[in-house]
Amino acid sequence: MRGDLTEGDITKKLLLFALPLMAGNLLQQMYNVADTLIVGRFLGADALAAVGSSYTLMVFLTSILLGLCMGSSAFFSIQFGRKDMERLRTSFALSFLLIGAAALLLNLLSFAGLDWIIRALQVPREVVRLMREYLFCIFFGIPATFLYNYFANLLRAVGDSVTPLLFLGVAAVMNIALDLVFVIVFRWGVAGAAAATVLSQYASGLGILLYYLLRFPELRVARRHIRWDGGIVREIAGLSVLTCVQQSIMNLGILMVQGLVNSFGKVVMAAFAAAVKIDSFAYMPVQDFGNAFSTFIAQNYGAGKAERIRRGIKSAALSAFAFCAAISLAVCALARPLMGLFVDAGDTAIIEAGVGYLRIEGAFYFGIGLLFLLYGFYRAVKMPGMSVVLTVFSLGTRVALAYALSAVPALGVTGIWMSVPIGWALADAVGVLYYYRNRTSILAGG
């Protein structure tokens, strides 16, 4: 067994555990970024708009499964911190069956509601056919997304953050290679880009499942572990469902903003599609740092080490601030050349719109960095409901202000961009204030 975060130097252990998560999620972003780069360069603005809007939708759908897996992972980490391996195996068996059933249902609903989804997103008429073609293919990858995220979160819960990175690395390289072949050589259009992503997802999902079966006998489930345990189910459901709600609300809000962005036309739609990929790359590492921080907190919460948790909070906040400050400077300074990676230099209107987005968002990345730490903390101490509250504050403000400010003629689409950091700041203030007023009772619950 590996990855005990309840002993040793806090900053060193936290960073060593977090770095593979950061690298892994950056690789995961390459699935859709590879589509966006190749589609934007070789298939044109309509295809770029279709793939970009599809990305926002898939983030929302994936967030449902990811939330369920992350909630279970927090429970696994707490049991690992307590060294209760029998309870860990039983909870693993039960959560796999429950979340697997949810993944199957989500897959069926996605196919059934495809046309309604496209209408709800206010997709321009000239983009509808391409978006439908892309989504129909990409939905076949939902089961693979479940497999990878479930076993990746299980391994991370017990301190192995390297193995998920390795499987993602293979899948990312495979995705780029297949993109080039299917789109440029075979000329399969957006369906080719989707097929490349789906095949790569299955490579990582089935690969990590096989690795778990062969290399982690200490986590392997026996027949005695496949039994109903109401107490475990209630605890897992409380963490998983509320974490799922938090992730879904967060991405549903983004999806609502996507519909508003689409109403400004193809130029803004394409600019947003490209800029969001850059944005995701920029703050994704600190999101993964928040997830690593959550595992650290959960293991120490299970072990009853309140003082180590306090020291870990200070270390994580300082590390996140340093990273976000560096990334903010880089994105603000390089916004134009970064947009040029996705958009032809002749599409100046698209580039200008994307630069405006990046310079507003990029200046305030610590707001989202701190919010990810708060999400991870409250999930780890079995208070996922607080993460939901913070998400409602953040996204509620964002959506309301996006619609209100964009209606001001002097602001227009800039009002949408401005609403985001305001939402981050409000949620941060609520989360930090709640912790300082209740920290003794929160940390005593382990």
Automatic annotation (TrEMBL):
One GO term of the biological process aspect: monoatomic ion transport
Keyword Cell membrane: yes
Family: Belongs to the multi antimicrobial extrusion (MATE) (TC 2.A.66.1) family.
Pfam families assigned to the protein according to its UniProt record, in alphabetical order: MatE
Principal localisation: membrane
Subcellular location: Cell membrane
Keywords: Antiport, Cell membrane, Ion transport, Membrane, Transmembrane, Transmembrane helix, Transport
A GO cellular-component term linked to this record: plasma membrane
Protein's name in the database: Probable multidrug resistance protein NorM
Chain ranges passing through the membrane: 14-34, 54-80, 92-113, 133-152, 164-186, 192-214, 318-343, 363-381, 388-410, 416-436
Function field: Multidrug efflux pump.
A GO MF label: xenobiotic transmembrane transporter activity
Membrane disposition: Multi-pass membrane protein
